[in-house]
Structures are given as C-alpha cells and as structure tokens.
Amino acid sequence: AKPKVGYTYSEGSGYLNNLEEIYGKKVKEVKSVAVVVKKRTSVYDAIVKLFLEDVGSLYVIDDDEILVGVLSRKDLLKMTIGETDINQMPVSVVMTRMPHLFTVKDEDAVFEAAKKIVDYEVDSLPVVEQLTDQAGEVIEDKFKVIGRVSKTTIARIFVDCKLQI
Amino acid sequence: AKPKVGYTYSEGSGYLNNLEEIYGKKVKEVKSVAVVVKKRTSVYDAIVKLFLEDVGSLYVIDDDEILVGVLSRKDLLKMTIGETDINQMPVSVVMTRMPHLFTVKDEDAVFEAAKKIVDYEVDSLPVVEQLTDQAGEVIEDKFKVIGRVSKTTIARIFVDCKLQI
Predict the structure, then answer these.
(1) Do A152 and B118 touch (CB under 8 A)?
(2) Which residues of A touch B152 (CB under 8 A)?
(3) Cystine design at B80: which of A80, B6, B33, B34 (Cβ 3.0–4.6 Å)?
(4) Which CATH architecture has domain A26-164?
(5) pLDDT tens, A115-160?
(6) Is A3's Cβ below 8 Å from some Cβ in B?
(7) Which chain B residues are within 8 Å of A94, Cβ to Cβ?
(8) What is the value of ipTM here, to two decimals?
(9) Which residues in chain A are contacts of B23 at CB distance < 8 A?
(10) What top-level branch of life does the organism fall under (chains A, B) (predicted)?
C-alpha cells in the first residue's frame, strides 16, 4: 500500500488530500486497453464492435498498425442518419484523421490528459508511442496505439481519490 | 473570490488542496442545462437534436413535463443498425425508462453524482425535483428535470480544481 504522504487534518471538516499527487499520476498508471479497427472496416461493423467491447470511442489503424484516426459515437451516429449505406462505407470516411486528433503519451500526467479532454471536447484520447526507425530516429507523426484515457477514466480517478481518503 | 481556506504547502512538491470541499460542492453549483425531448419524438429527430444541442444524452418527458426516460448515444446508435425506420420509431421504445434510471438532486454532493456515474456506467444523470401535490405531499416517482450532470462536468471540475491551486 502507498504511504499516505502529505495527508493532514483540515481546520474544519475532514481531510486534505494531496491533489498534486493525483494530478501528477502518469497516464500509464491509469490507462485502459485501446479498442482498434482497421481503416477499411465498415461503419456498421465498427458500431457492432463498439457495443461488443463496450467502449465510447474506437481507434482506427492502417495495415502497419499505425494510428490513422479516431471514431466517436457521434461520428458513427452522424453516418446513420444520412442516406449512406453503412455496410458499404469504410470508417476512414467518417473518422477524425491524423494529424487532426489529440493524443497523450505514457509519461504524461493525468492532469494533462484531463485538460485535453475538456479543452478539445473529446470523449477519449488514444495513448500513443512514437515509432522509431532502425537507427532509433523518431518517425514524425507515426504512432502506435498503446492505450486509452477517457472521461470515464477521469471520473473514476475523481471517485477513487475520495474513497482513499 | 472564495477564500482559500485549508490551503497549505506540501513537504515535497507543490500544494495541498481541500478535496473534501470539492467533493462536497452541491450539484446545483455545477449542473448544466438539460436537453429534453417529448416521448413521441422520433429516434431520427432525437439524433438531430443531440447534434444541434451538442450533448451526449437527452432526457425524455411526457406531456406534463414529467421525466419518463433517458436516451444515450448508445441507445440511439443501437436503433440505427437494426432494420427499423428511425423516422417512425418513437424514442419511448429505445429509452431507459423510469424507474430504472439514475438521478440526482440539487442538494446532492458532486461526489455522489460522480460515484453514480462511475458505478452505474452512465454518461450523465438528470438533476430532478420531486413533484408535490396541492397539499404539498410528495408524489412518488414523479420528477421534473431541472438540469444535467455528466462525465464532462466531472472532468471539468477535476481540471478546474488544479487551475485554482
């Protein structure tokens, strides 16, 4: 068990908790598993996957497993009220595409992830890892998806902190 | 401006903030406006409203403006992958209905709302007010909707607290 460093009584009601410690937690400590689909997946199949995996967003990858887009429930809903045949339409047409999407890294602080979610009004952020070439050089804008941080993650942290007090 | 009661330096890195104060905030201080539809609204029109109002859930009311159900993006998505004509189908068929839904009241603590959202795995909670009859007696299970608390609300509180430190 973690030592309760920094805990102290408040003058009035109850405890103080070290909020800085909570905000400074790393994304890798709180992330959940990413659910991905290939870019040629149909909108219909993506919706089915969303239900089967019980998530709010799907991440879209290409054949080399590089992140190419993000699919929200709203992206998917938007397609279903049009005239399009969602069995024929690939998710690549409706997704938010790289580089117009927001990501976090394993070493980022939870606060940073929460702030991006709030500021950019997204439901979740893919946790990514930058690809490197054989010489170990970073390949610009090529990311592998290694997790997910969502509004649910943030709400859960908010609740869990209280239960730990 | 609120006096920063209970703030103090931590031994190591940064500040302590009074988490109890944050958790104890009342729902009425943080709620946002509820977006409602009538129970005979079509699934199609509800989806359009969801986009126009830019929310994640809609609350369904009857002709007396009593809360009768909640519609999530997933409830709506589920309908669009079936064979049903979403122009003909009323939302009352797909909504989660009273009394099988979770609500909060103005005087509840933010923590309680967050815990319900996490425990019951919902995106948002309608903030409700119990109806009373002419004698001032509470009418069981009859609620008016007076707001909304969502995962976004919780994430925003989480971020704002840090910015106030």
Answers:
(1) yes
(2) 118, 121, 151
(3) A80
(4) Roll (3.10)
(5) 999 999 999 999 999 998 889 888 888 999 999 999 999 999 999 8
(6) no
(7) none
(8) 0.84
(9) 162
(10) Bacteria
Amino acid B49: pLDDT: 97
* A99 has pLDDT over 80: yes
Model confidence band, residue B80 (pLDDT cutoffs 50, 70, 90) = confident
**Interface residue A18 vs chain B (CB under 8 A):** yes
> Which residues, including other chains, have CB under 8 Å from residue B117's CB and lie 6 or more apart?
A155, B123, B124, B125, B149, B150, B151, B154
- Tokens standing for residue B2: 């609120």
When pLDDT is cut at 50, 70 and 90, the band that residue B101 belongs to is very high
The reported pLDDT for the residue numbered B66 is 96
Q: What is the pLDDT of residue A22?
A: 83
Residue A3 in 3-state DSSP? coil
Structure tokens belonging to residue A32: 């959940």
Is the domain spanning B8-164 CATH 3.10.580.10? The answer is: yes
> How many residues are there in chain B?
165
The residue among B131, B143, B147 whose CA lies nearest residue B67 is B143
Mean pLDDT confidence for B61-68 = 96
Band (pLDDT 50/70/90 cuts) for residue B10 is: very low
Question: String of b and e for B134-154 (b: at least 16 CB within 10 Å)?
Answer: eeeeeeeebbbbbbbbbbbbb
Q: Per DSSP, which regions of chain B are E strands?
A: 8-9, 15-16, 36-38, 57-61, 67-72, 96-97, 104-105, 124-132, 138-150
Contact: B155, A118; criterion CB under 8 Å: yes
Judged by CB atoms closer than 8 Å, whether chains meet at A19 and B15 is answered as yes
Two tokens at B68? 């009768």
Could you say which of B10, B20, B158 has the minimum Cβ distance to residue A20? B10
Identify the residue whose tokens are 């933010």: B110
Q: Which of A33, A32, A58, A63 is nearest to A44 (CA)?
A: A58
Q: Is B138 on the interface with A (CB under 8 A)?
A: no
- Give yes or no for residue A8 having a pLDDT over 80: no
